[in-house]
Amino acid sequence: NSPPWPAFRGYHEYSFAHATMGVRLPTILGKAIQDVIRTLNEQWDEDKMIDLNKCIERMEDLMHDLTGQAVLRPIIDDGEGDVALWNKEIAKYFQGKNFINAPWLFAEAYKYRRLHECFSISKYWGDYDVFFRQKCDTFSRSSQAVFELSTRFVLPWKFAESHTPGSDANVEQVHEAERLMFLELTQICLWGNSTDLSLLINMTEEDIKKLQSTGGEHLAATEKNILGNHLPRLWEHVKELRGKTGGRIDFVLDNAGFELYCDCVYADFLIQSGLAKQIRFHGKRFAWFVSDVTKKDWDWLLNVMVHGELFKDISDTERESLRKLGLRWKQYEREGKWIYEQHPFWCTGYTYWDMITEAPDLFLHLSRSDLVIFKGDLNHRKLTYDCAAPAATPFEEAIGPMASAPGAPKICSLRTVKSDVVVGLPSNELADKLDKDEPGWKISGKYAVVLFSEGRPG
Ligand code: F6P
Ligand code: MG
């Protein structure tokens, strides 16, 4: 069950796999060790310090395996729901393989799982997240864009009441306002993905600002960077959701902090406008690909918005807008309009081509949704098998069973391009031209795709 094109591997020097496996991952792991040492130096309890030192030793062993071509070993049974899936996949496909000659997607995911194992088998540090400090820090340095959005979207969506019977609102105007707002927020949600921490270490506040600028003009300019653009098709589908079906939309989340905040602003509009009745957010069970959302990140965001003092030198209006927005989102959670979930499958090395066989319960669960939005680069790689498909390959072909299996849900991938696999473009020539004119265009996060798949009734 796989596409006809070869998957990228670390030894492919032409691919970003090479730099990632050879340089980026050891750098990320080195920084993670520094983070744990910082935590170690803040401890006073001897047992905990001894235990944490053992975690550091395991991280050093992992560094040794990663840089020394060690054979991928099974994951130690730490009681997590994904261990059996990992070890089955290793035994079945990757016996004798190492970080460089195993498929990039698998090898990179395996590294994050091994990193989690360094802590999960400890006595005191089972849920330690080596990236937590970084994730919080980047959000706190995103103040301009955070308040631009909060001051604007704290006000209730003004046409929310217009769909109630007896309302005298001009229906066409309301629909047009909704369409425009939907398109704008979809783009905000999309570009929120360009700030993930794995690529943008050492950003200045200016760099962050540039990436997060959310003004209308900016959005019009960035739409031309959406190389495969199904935004109009997406709207055609979403506008039909109101009242007609259950109105459930799922977000398979990517990064914490600012990206999650943008996801929530978007999800808030979907609820307020009545387009969706329920949003299900899917996060990770533990620290994953540096900045991905865990339950702790989710709680941190909502609570820091309401109770925190993260931002200095802000006006009362700004502080209040963020607090009110946070309160509204927490209320959605209490009412069951927003639900946070964390299935173990999201932290495995499997691509989504294998979801039906390896996590049938999850596939069934998603097949009941009216729309599943996959955020970000990693989700896109997993949807498309992370292989060298031609750029003009239709999205539905590239995601295989996730489009063609009975019960496949409607899917949208909102992804800024940060790695080799690119599909859904209008022509192969477009990619060839970019290869020639703008080397590095596939890893800069400057370009994006918004791709939609119709799914298939069960
Ligand atoms: O491809 C580059 C990369 O950093 C991968 O390591 C990873 O797949 C991805 O980008 C992370 O990006 P995102 O957070 O958008 O999934
Ligand atoms: Mg990520």
Could you characterize the architecture of this molecule?
- This protein is α/β, with parallel strands linked by helices.
- 50% of the residues lie in helices and 8% in strands.
- Strands 1-7-6-5-2-3-4 form a seven-stranded mixed beta sheet.
- α1 (16-40) runs parallel beside α4.
- The two termini are 20 Å apart.
- Magnesium ion binds next to α16.
Note the topology.
Blueprint: H1 16-40, H2 46-67, H3 83-93, H4 104-120, H5 132-140, H6 143-153, H7 171-191, H8 205-212, H9 216-223, E1 226-229, H10 231-238, E2 248-252, H11 258-272, E3 278-282, H12 295-307, H13 316-335, E4 338-341, H14 355-358, H15 360-367, E5 371-375, H16 376-384, H17 395-398, H18 401-404, E6 411-416, H19 428-437, E7 448-453
Parallel strand pairs: 1-7, 2-3, 2-5, 3-4, 5-6
Antiparallel strand pairs: 6-7
Bound molecules: 6-O-phosphono-beta-D-fructofuranose (F6P) and magnesium ion (MG).
Give a brief rundown of this model.
With 458 residues, this protein is an alpha/beta fold.
Along the chain, the helix and strand elements come as HHHHHHHHHEHEHEHHEHHEHHHEHE
- Kindly state the number of beta strands: 7
Counting helices, strands and paired strands, the structural category is: alpha/beta
Estimate the global geometry from the Cα principal axes.
globular
Distance between the termini: 20 Å
Query: Which small molecules are bound?
Result: 6-O-phosphono-beta-D-fructofuranose, magnesium ion
Rg (C-alpha, Å): 22 Å
Mean pLDDT value: 93
- The residue ranges in which pLDDT falls below 50 over 5 or more consecutive positions are 198-202
In percent, how helical is the residue content?
Answer: 40-55%
Count of DSSP-assigned helices: 19
Beta content comes to 5-15%
Spatial strand sequence of the major β-sheet: 1-7-6-5-2-3-4
Quick one: biggest sheet? 7 strands, mixed
